[in-house]
Amino acid sequence: MSALLDVEDLVVRFATPGGEHTAVRGVSFSVRAGERVGIVGESGSGKSVTAQAVLRLLGPAATVAGGAVRFDGRDVLAFDRGELRRWRGAQAAMVFQDPLSSLNPLVRIGRQVTETLREHLGLDRRAATAKAAELLASVGIPDAAARLREYPMTFSGGMRQRVAIAIAISCAPRLLIADEPTTALDVTVQAQVLDLMDGMTADLGTAVVLISHDLGVVSTFCDRVLVMYAGRVVESGTADQIVEDPRHPYTRALLASIPSLEGELPRRLPSIPGTPPQPGRAHTGCAFADRCPLAADVCRAEDPEPLELGDGRLAACHFADRSAG
Amino acid sequence: MTAPIEVPGLETAPPRRPLRQAWRSLLRDIPALISIVALILLALAALLAPVLAPHDPLRTYAEGLTDQGAPVAPGGGFPLGTDPNGRDVLSRLLYGARVSLTIGVFANGLATLVGVAVGITAGYFGGRVDTVVSRITDVVMSFPILLFCVALITVTGPSQRNVVLVIALIYWTYLARIIRGMVLSLREREFVTATRTLGVSTVRILFRHILPHLVPAIIVYATLGVASSILIESSLSFLGVGVPVPEASWGQMIDDGRKYYEAAPWLLFAPGVCLIVTVLAFNLAGDWLRDLLDPTAPERR
Amino acid sequence: MSPVVEVEDLKVYFGRRRGGTVKSVDGVSFDIAPGETLGLAGESGSGKSTIARALLRINEPTSGRVVIGGRDVTKLRGAALKAFRRQTQMVYQDPYDSLDPRMRIGATVEEALLVRGVPASRRAAGVRELLDRVGLPASYARRYPHELSGGQRQRISIARALGVDPAVIVCDEAVSALDVSVRAQILNLLKDLQEEAGLAYLFISHDLSTMRFAADRVAVMYLGRLVEIGTRDQVFTAPRHPYTRALLAAVPVPGGRGRGPRARLAGEPPSPADPPAGCAFHPRCPLAAAECVTTRPELRRKDDGRITACHFVPDAPTGPGSEVTA
């Protein structure tokens, strides 16, 4: 089966006053049509930068220094401005953590929704407005036609995220990238928004890349999960594989450090010593070696390559083929 | 030891070196560099005026006037010529720099002192103090500055001291407003709340936790304020209510010179150029300091 | 042991510019024993942080009593207020804003010792000892906050709080901004310190799995009022109030659930400026009946010792997996 999105050996560098640093160090993954792929990682792991690079949304300080991004076989990194405009919004859309920053506070909701519709679907104003009301109603906004005339400030956080989702799916994109879409929301509202994304993308057959620091959110939403650490994918597999049989010591430690909601609790939580590496700090060998309980000499000398574990699983660890201790 | 030590990740982070940072940014900003050099030269000129001045600035020289009683053109014994009273223009410029800088620095220093104190009080304590201060600044800022100064000096009588006081009386309001706004937002920062709930005294909070955050802004606005104060002083002297004659002041020299503009243009140009260069230099230096210290931007990390 | 914190019918109202009042906290009572952690759970707007800020006298309570160490602290002024401040400390949510960025770590921690009246000659040693207690090397005293990671900054916040030797520490979302792997370290540190010093914690968090690890007892808030309070096991294993149940059901647990709808509740928490009549939860409640619209249920102790504010909470204990049905 050919992939809808194919990211190969992506490298992203940032120019900072202190020099250049590499935020994404050779990330590869692919997303099939209709598939849901989750990217989990802590701050500085490069998960958001990866998403921005895929949609060509990187700021001026960042450059893609290597690798390829292909959408439907086409080279996204070679798109000119016109191709990019036709592609983004229509075929590939994004939802951000804070809808307040992606919605313009001074423009009525209606115009922000119809803008995309008119641009990509060529609807006239009346048709676009009708469609916009329909869209808002479909994402669960009561009294949608009237609320089109309101400004983002009058919407609650959950409602704003619904609007952002409505805009993102308005042209039935084939790929939706959602970067921490529920992090700013309360847990009961998060559940609603995840349900909404679930239903909308299933109906349209849209593939989703869901980025989150929360393994719970990602593993319950996605088919496959990538775990990122210090700019690399350290482990990937199906959501069940990652949660039930993690092979990378980082994934194991991450899962262990989340207190469960039922069963016995330890007196102390198993924690990972140290802090995630500062972006841009050069290191030889495995980036996790300093914090890893399994670290041996080989880990400090050589950065492990992703190791094929069968069933389409990958883990970048010298000891990945050993069972969990 | 109760918990694992986190890996010291930033052991190699360079300590902050403000002076080196300032020097580097100055080398990248040529207008600012020139301004700083100009200000240093100006300060030296003012300080060393008695040594540098070729003549007595107040004395009328016989050879300073032509046979027709007109000012002598630049060159010869008088490098920048003489004025209609036969006094040496260069010497008067040097002494005038003393007057301008003294008044600029003192008037603005006083305004800064009062403005910071009032701004902090109003911003931190709020309530009635704040209301009163805000209304006073509103009223003062709605006056036409120059007219207000002229009126006040006419009442109090022109003298260097009165010029300083009158300028300070107006300018403290500008700084008080800025400082008040900054303190209002600083007061709500969590580290201030945390310090307050620790039981730290209010005086200590103001001096150790609020004031250090205002220093960059104070430096920047004080620098810009010197330029404004010098301009006001010159305007007052130009209008004849500034520094009393025969003391040399740039504004008053411009006033003198403008009547002889066609016959003796140097009389207008010499003080005019000095004034423009000085004010421009203070403004450019202030802008550079603003970029360097960036008082309005969030903390640099 | 007699409680170190007793809160009785605490109300914190805020006036609004456009008129009307927001009842941010509306009649809340609880107590905390020495060495105990009381968790305060709820969504945004529930009034959790307002309670924290009222306990520390950052916000003035409108009415009610807050007794800490046997003394009602709501009316304290001047020197008595300063003396009280030493008993109750807070660790704040934002590790980037709760330390003075222009002060070295050592000076920040030393300030606590200064407040406690430790003489200058002994303060340097005191700073070293405090840093050691929170697991940081003494060399960190010379650093500035921007040179530290989020977790390290929270350790400094904790060290500063410990510096005045408090009896109660309020942790207001103290680990919420931290990465998961670092969060566990700080939670462990808080537990260790509690055992060492017999500290009482008021642990505020929107994250229920963190709450389950940290708290001995849990109080659940909705729109300024407590809806349920009980031991950790009572609340997490057999939640009674329909809101507590919905809250727990909404937490995504790694590997916890197959595909299917997650949300048990429609709508969002209403604004505390305009709370619904009767039970504030009734517009979203699957059990809501006519009685709920008209009459506000009070927090009541049932025969089995469970405390909830709901007209329809069953008296008989229910098992963990049991569903709320309308």
TrEMBL record, chain A:
Compartment(s) of residence: Cell membrane
Transmembrane segments: none
Domain of life where this protein originates: Bacteria
Protein species of origin: Spongiactinospora gelatinilytica
Stored Gene3D superfamilies: P-loop containing nucleotide triphosphate hydrolases
Annotated family: Belongs to the ABC transporter superfamily.
Protein name: ABC transporter ATP-binding protein
Classification via SUPFAM superfamilies: P-loop containing nucleoside triphosphate hydrolases
Pfam families cross-referenced by the UniProt entry: ABC_tran, oligo_HPY
Occurrences of domain ABC transporter (ranges): 5-255
A molecular function GO annotation: ATP binding
GO biological process: peptide transport
Topology of the protein relative to the lipid bilayer: Peripheral membrane protein
Annotated SMART domains: AAA
Keywords for this protein: ATP-binding, Cell membrane, Membrane, Nucleotide-binding, Transport
Entry GO terms, CC: plasma membrane
TrEMBL record, chain B:
GO BP, one annotated term: transmembrane transport
Membrane topology summary: Multi-pass membrane protein
Alphabetical list of InterPro entries matching this protein: BP-dependent_transpt_permease, MetI-like, MetI-like_sf, OppC_N
Domain of life of the organism encoding this protein: Bacteria
Residue intervals passing through the bilayer: 30-53, 101-127, 139-157, 163-179, 214-243, 263-285
Domain ABC transmembrane type-1: from-to ranges: 97-286
One Pfam family hit: OppC_N
Subcellular localization: Cell membrane
Alphabetical UniProt keywords: Cell membrane, Membrane, Transmembrane, Transmembrane helix, Transport
UniProt cross-references to Gene3D superfamilies, sorted A to Z: MetI-like
Principal location class: membrane
Entry GO CC: plasma membrane
Family of the protein in this entry: Belongs to the binding-protein-dependent transport system permease family.
Name listed for the protein in its UniProt record: Peptide ABC transporter permease
Annotated organism of origin: Spongiactinospora gelatinilytica
UniProtKB/TrEMBL annotation, chain C:
Keyword Lyase: no
Domain of life: Bacteria
Gene Ontology MF annotations: ATP binding; ATP hydrolysis activity
SMART domains (UniProt xref): AAA
GO biological process: peptide transport; transmembrane transport
ATP-binding found in the keyword field: yes
Keywords: ATP-binding, Nucleotide-binding, Transport
Gene3D superfamilies listed in its UniProt record: P-loop containing nucleotide triphosphate hydrolases
SUPFAM superfamilies to which the protein is assigned, alphabetical: P-loop containing nucleoside triphosphate hydrolases (SSF52540)
UniProt-listed Pfam families: ABC_tran, oligo_HPY
Limits of the ABC transporter domain: 5-248
Family: Belongs to the ABC transporter superfamily.
Protein name: Peptide ABC transporter substrate-binding protein
Species whose genome carries this gene: Spongiactinospora gelatinilytica
